[in-house]
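for the record, two folds in this file. i put them one after another cuz i was lazy. first one right below, seq on top, structure tokens after. the second one comes after a little note so u can tell where it starts
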Amino acid sequence: MLLLLLAAGLSAGPRTWAHGDMHEQILNATKEVEKNPRDPELYLKRAELERHHREWDAAHADLARAEALTNQWPILHLARARLFLDAEWFENTKLAADRFLVHEPNNAEAYAIRARARMKLGERLAAAQDFSRAITNTARPAPELYLERAQAQVAEGGAHLAEAFHMNYEIHHGGNSLNNVANLHVAMAIRNTQFFEVLLPDAAQKYGLAKDIEIGKDGYVQAPVGPGLGAQIDFDLIKRKTVAVLA
């Protein structure tokens, strides 16, 4: 029963505790530990209390004690993930959440925890994906999950924001041949884009490349595969058209 209550507490999110009340609860938990020093659930219970009291080192130590008393207890990874997130140890948060998800790959709380850590680490797209997993694996997702996912998608911007609304992100003509080559590479790296814009008359929009982008008979274009952008700049044309060289 205690383990179930602790698991529920982990998924319920942060709560507000009175300082005096929390201190008393930690003292009572310590008395329980002293009576039953071989019970890992009691160390987990005290660790949760210490986490809420922002006693990071004490909570971490109690989780280690609990782990030493049991061989396989996946909830300890989840408890560590919550602790590390609260303590702002974000890389460790990801690692602990990863370990827990090996045992429970559909756990919404673990995905939400990892998503929040990823947001702090600037991994916004991965965070949005984890928020989506949290939402999918929750019977009644909290509104905050949708809001946090939207924030991650907006922060990532561009094509990812369009994707969040199930829309394509189409790229405009680059204005010149070399820009178009760069645009084509970008378009091929985005899964929610389908078109390559061609301005007419086509020949009037091409200049400066020995080999420009051409539309195939099938209606598709192919990106160059050489080093860098793969573009073959027509340096002879540039030399012939040079008016002056500025020092």
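(here's the note) second protein begins now
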Amino acid sequence: MKKKTVWILVLVVLFAILLIQNSTKTDLKLYFWSLSGPLFILVFFIFLLGFLVGFLAAKNGHKKEIKTEEPVKPHVPQDLPAKPQP
């Protein structure tokens, strides 16, 4: 297995353990809304929101620019001074 695949599997297992251990009922109050449910659902949606924000930020940061400039040509002098004779 590749090293990246192992790390992804380890992180998924740790995240699953985190979700399973946080099954207590909790209340979420946001301005006029009040939600009640298991804590792991809230943790999962916060994780999903963070992943989405990170993915969109990374996608916007790697836009490729199309260069229309011509390549720079090296300067070659037309008249070279004569070399002094020893």
